Amino acid sequence: MTSVMVVDDDQDLAEMLGIVLNGVGIEVDLVSRGDEVLEVFRNNPPDLVLLDIMLPGLDGIEVCKEIRKHSMRVPIVMLTAKSDTHDIVRGLEAGADDYMVKPFKPSELVARIRTRLRRTGGESSSTLTIGDLAIDIVEHTVTRAGKEIPLTRLEFDLLVSLAKEPGRVFTREALLGEVWGYRHSTDTRLVNVHIQRLRAKIEHDSENPTIIGTVRGIGYRAGALGNRS
Amino acid sequence: MKITQYFRTSLFRKVFSVSSIISIALIYFLGSNLYNRISDGIIEEKISAAISEGEAAIQYADYRFLIGSLNKNTDYKTIVDEIVKSTNVSAKASGREIALLSSTGKRLARIPSRSTSNFLEPSSIPSELRQLVKEDDEIHWQRTNLRYFNGESVAGVAVGHRIDIKSVGRYEMYVLFDFASQQQTIDLMGRSMWGTGLILMALIMVIASVVLRQVIKPVRYAAEVAEQLSAGDLLKRMQVKGSDEVARLGTAFNDMADTLAKQITRLENLSRLQQRFVSDVSHELRTPLTTIRMASDVIFAARERFDPTIARSAELLLSQIDRFEELLTDLLEVSRFDAQVATLSLSKIDLVQLVNRCVEDLAMDAKQRDVKIRIDVPEDEVLIDGDSRRIERIMRNLLGNAIDHAEGNPVDLTVKAGSSAVSLAVRDYGVGIATHHLERVFDRFWRADPSRSRIRGGTGLGLSIAREDANLHGGDIKLWSELGAGAQFVLTLPLTQGQPITEVPIGELPTH
Fold it and tell me: What gap in Å lies between CA A138 and CA A147, rounded to an integer?
C-alpha cells in the first residue's frame, strides 16, 4: 500500500487530507511539526511527502533540504497558501518536485500524487545514452563513466523525457504535460527551476550546458548542438 | 539662439556679463564726461588768455601806427614788418601768429594788403570773424584752425580788431594762438584716463567673478544635491556651514527633504502593511478553505446516499466554495495591482493557439446557452511577448462575458495582427450596455443591473482585472456597446514588450 507523509500544522486540514487519501487507498502518516519530520521519515520512509511551507519548529523549505540530504528518491509536493513566486521558487530550489496552492481540489491532489508515484516504464529499450551519460530506465539510474549521479525521480523523468527524443525541441508547456502531468499549465517556473537543478548535477559546466540545451524563446532539447543561444 | 542658450544656462555667465556691460558703460560715460569738462576748461582758459594778450598786441600795433602817422616820411612797411615779424622769433614758443589784412583788400601806402607771420594762410581767419571785426570797434574772437602754406594745420583761436591808420586807410589786425600745448595736455590726460578706465574695468571684472563664484558655488551645490534627491536618493542632505542665507537655504532644504522622506517612508510602510495584511488574510483564509473544500467534496461524492434536500445542499455548498475561492483569488490579484507589485512573467506566446484553447474550454458553457462562437483568426501563428496566464485570463473573461450576455445569439471572435500590435475583438449581439453605464463597466464589483439574476457566478472583478492585465502589458481594452445591439470588447496588445503601439488593428466600433 502506498504511504504518504502529510506534514501540516493545521490538525483539521491534516485529518481531512487523511480522509481523502485513505478514500483512494493511500496510507497517511501525519506530522505536525517541522522538526519531527526527519525522525518519522527515518523510522517509516514514505513513498511521497506532502509538505506545508509554514511550519512550527522548522520551516518547510528547511525540512525539504533535510529530506533531500537523506533521500534523493522520495517525491516532495509542497502545499502552500501563498502563490507568490518567491516562496514557490525557494521551495523548488530546495528540492521540491511540485507544489499545490491552497485551496486545491481533492481530485487534483490525488492526480498529482499519482503522477509523482508513476513509474517511468514500458519503453522499448531499457537504456538510453545522452552525451556521456548512461540512463538505465529499469534501474532508475544515471551513470557517467560507471559512477552513479544521484537524481530525484522528477529530475530523472525530466532527463528521460528529453533523452528519449534527442534533438526534439520541447516547449515548457510540453514538458509540464509530460513530466508533471499538467494540462494547460503555463507555470514556467517549475520547468526552469528543475532544468537548472538537473544541469547542476549532470553538466560539466552548468553555465555552458552541452547535454540539455536552451532554445531561446521556445524551450529545451537534449543535445545542445546547433541553434542554441 | 545658441548665444541666448549659452547665457541662459549659467547664472555666472549671465550675472557676470550683465555687470561687466553695465560697468563698462558707466566708466565710459563718466570718463568721457570728465574728459570733456577738463579739456573744455583748458581751452577756455587759453582763450581768455589769448583775448587779453591779443588785445595788448593790437593796442601796441595801433600805437605804433599812430606814432608812425605823425612823421610824414614814415616807412609803414617797416612798422608792419616789425609788428608782424616780431612774433616770428618766438612764434613756436608762444604759439602766437599775427595777421594784418587790408579791409578793402587793396595795398595802401606800401602796406601789403595781406601780411602774416610764419607763412600763415590768411584764410585761417574765418570770414564771419572778419565781418564782425569790420562792423564795429570791438575786440572779437573765434575758434579756428591755423593753416600754413606748407599744409600744416593746428587748432587755435583768432582774436581781431580793426586798425585805422591815419591818412592810409583801414586794416584789420588778428592775433592767432594755437592750442598745441593745450592739446598735448588734453591728449596726455585722455591717455591716462583710458588706462585708468581699463584697469578699473579689469578690477571690476575680477572682483565680480570672485564675488559671484562665492555666491554661486553654494547655489550650484544646492542644485546638485536637489537633483540627486529628486533622482531618488532620499538620504541626500546639504552640508550647512555658518548661519548666512546660504546656510538658511541649506537648513530649509534639509528640513524639506526630511519631511519628504518621512512622508514617503510612511506611505511606503502603509502600503506595505496593507499589502501584507491582504496577503496574510488571504493566507489565513486559504487553509480552512482547503479543509472545507475537501470536506464538501467528500460529502458531494456521497450525495447519492442522502435524501434529495441534503444532496442538493451538498451541490450548492460545493459551487459556492468555488465562487468563494474565485473571489479570494481575484481579491488577492487586485491587491497586487493596488500595491503595484504585479509583474509580468514573459514568454513568446502564440495568441491564435491561446484563443483556440480558450474557445475549447468555454465550448461547454456556450453549448449550454445555445451560443455559437464564430472564430476569425489568422491561419499563421501570431507570436507576442506576453504573460500567458494573464492573457488567457483576459480572453476567458471577455469570451465568458460575451457568452453570458449573448442571449442565444452568436458571438464573433476576431484576431487581427498589425505591425506593432495585435487586437482581439469579442462581439456579441445580446442586450448590450446603456451608454451612460459604459464608463463604469470596468469598475470593481459594478453590475449593470443588480436585480438581474446571474447565471454564471463571476466575482465582479473580472473586467477590472482584465483591464489591469492589459495595461500591465502596455496594451488596453476598448469597449463599444449599444442597448439592444450587443457589445464589442477589443483587447489590443503590443507585439513586443516596450514597443509603443503605433496603430490599432481593430477599432472598438464594430464593422457590422
Answer: 17
Residue B490 CA from chain centroid, whole number: 42
Nearest by CB to residue B287, choosing from A13, A186, A218, is: A13
Structural domain count, chain B? 3
- pTM, full prediction: 0.59
Q: Examine the domain organization and report whether B307 and B418 are in the same domain.
A: no
DSSP-derived secondary structure letter, B509: S
Beta strands in B377-475 (DSSP E): 383-386, 411-417, 421-428
The three-class DSSP label of residue B374 is: strand
In chain A, the residue whose alpha carbon lies closest to the alpha carbon of B288 is: A13
Q: Output the pLDDT for position B453.
A: 46
- The answer to whether the CB of B490 falls within 8 A of the CB of B425 is yes
Residue B147 has pLDDT above 90, yes or no: no
- CATH at B320: 1.10.287.130
Question: Which 8-state DSSP code applies to residue A2?
Answer: -
Candidates B298, B347, B392; nearest CB to A188 = B347
Asked if the Cβ–Cβ distance from A107 to B297 is below 8 Å, we say yes
B351: phi then psi, degrees, rounded to nearest 5:
-65, -35
Burial B254-285 (b: 16+ CB within 10 A, else e): beebeeeeeeeeeeeeeeeeebeebbeebbeb
Q: First CA to last CA across chain B, in angstroms?
A: 55
A130-144, B226-240, B481-495: range with highest mean pLDDT: B481-495
Q: Which domain holds residue B418?
A: 347-494
Interface predicted TM-score (ipTM) of this complex, two decimals: 0.81
B176 and B305 in a single domain? The answer is no
Nearest CA among A183, A120, A127 for reference residue A156 = A120
- Phi (first) and psi of residue B277, to 5 degrees: -60, -50
Per-residue DSSP letter, B446: -
The count of other CB atoms within 10 Å of the CB of residue A134 is 16
Residue-range domains of chain A with CATH: 3-117 (3.40.50.2300), 127-222 (1.10.10.10)
Cα–Cα distance measured from residue A73 to residue A157, given in angstroms and rounded to the nearest whole number: 12
Chain B residue numbers with beta carbons less than 8 Å from the beta carbon of A174 are: none
